[in-house]
Amino acid sequence: MSSTPYEFLLTSKPAPGVALVTLNRPKALNALSSPLFIEINAAMNEFDNDDDVKAIVLTGSEKAFAAGADIKEMRDKTYADVYKNNFLENWGLLTKVRKPVIAAVSGYALGGGCELALMCDIILASPTAKFGQPEINIGVIPGGGGSQRLAQVVGKSRAMEMVLTGRMVSAEEAERWGMISRVVTEGSVVNEAVKMASVIASKGALSVQAGKEVVNAAYELTLNEGLRFERRIFHGLFATKDQKEGMTAFAEKRPPNFTHE
Predict the structure, then answer these.
(1) How far, in Å, CA of 109 to CA of 116, rounded?
(2) Where does the chain cross the membrane (predicted)?
(3) What is the pLDDT of residue 4?
(4) Residue 141: enclosing H or E segment and its boundaries?
(5) CATH number for 214
(6) Catalytic residue flag (residue 115)
(7) 72 is in which domain, residue-wise?
(8) Residue 118 and residue 129: Cα distance in Å, rounded?
(9) 112 catalytic, yes or no?
(10) Same domain, yes or no, for 111 and 141?
(11) What is the per-residue pLDDT for 55?
(12) Residue 128, SS3 per DSSP
């Protein structure tokens, strides 16, 4: 287990180079309260700074990845309060984690839960997964990035449908829309995510972080700027020991021994 105790999370290292963060508010279907999100950010920061960890898996329970934000916490807030204190800003800290984060989703990923999954780098889902932005049903809209990230990954019309109707999308539909990587039909979605994280952890950590950085840049830059940025990061990896080892191992037809330098 992790050395840091959490009230609403379970943390572990289920495989070499892999950390697992499990949301643990079962009675509330892992509703994302402010204290829970503070713990998510703390755990992610802890593993991001742990040299033994190369990839992170984030999951919930079989019944719910996270069934939304904590409505009871938000109900009585005022505009002045949420505006002055920039409510939900700290949710975006997850996107600052430099190591790859894989979401393993079962059950409900609604509202903030859907937004949390969309902040991750890769989403694997069990056949039971249901994604949705039902905020319209309670008189608001997504506030943790849902409208923006959905529009980028599924397009305007589908994002509009989800945001304006609150309809839940099945795992199969989410896969078809390109919202998730794939549906895991055989075995546990968490085990599959740990396997994928193990594969990533077996690579050179520098090139993995560089790969995450350039893919994310594609959402921020024009094509020409993105191509230039990718090329410069590619060039920079030629200053690493892992590039020399990787290419030498390929030429010598042996597995590489990356030192993450």
Answers:
(1) 8
(2) none
(3) 60
(4) none
(5) 1.10.12.10
(6) yes
(7) 9-201
(8) 14
(9) yes
(10) yes
(11) 98
(12) coil
Cα–Cα distance measured from residue 115 to residue 147, given in angstroms and rounded to the nearest whole number: 9
pLDDT score of 90 = 84
Query: Are the CB atoms for 197 and 239 separated by under 8 Å?
Result: no
What string of DSSP letters covers 62-87? SSEEE--B-HHHHTT--HHHHHHTTT
Of 17, 60, 112, 145, the catalytic one is 112
pLDDT digit string, tens, across residues 168-218? 999 999 999 999 999 999 999 999 999 999 999 999 999 999 999 999 999
Active-site residue, from 39, 135, 175, 230: 135
| Residues 59 and 24 occupy one common structural domain | yes
Domain count, the chain: 2
Q: What token pair was written down for 23? A: 């949301």
Give the model confidence (pLDDT) of 35-54 as tens digits.
999 999 999 999 999 999 99
Q: Which of 115, 175, 192, 230 is catalytic?
A: 115
Q: Is 131 exposed, middle or buried (0-12, 13-18, 19+ CB in 10 A)?
A: buried
Cα 56 from chain centre: 9
Residue 6 in tokens: 């959490």
Residues 260 and 209: their CA atoms lie apart, in Å, by 11
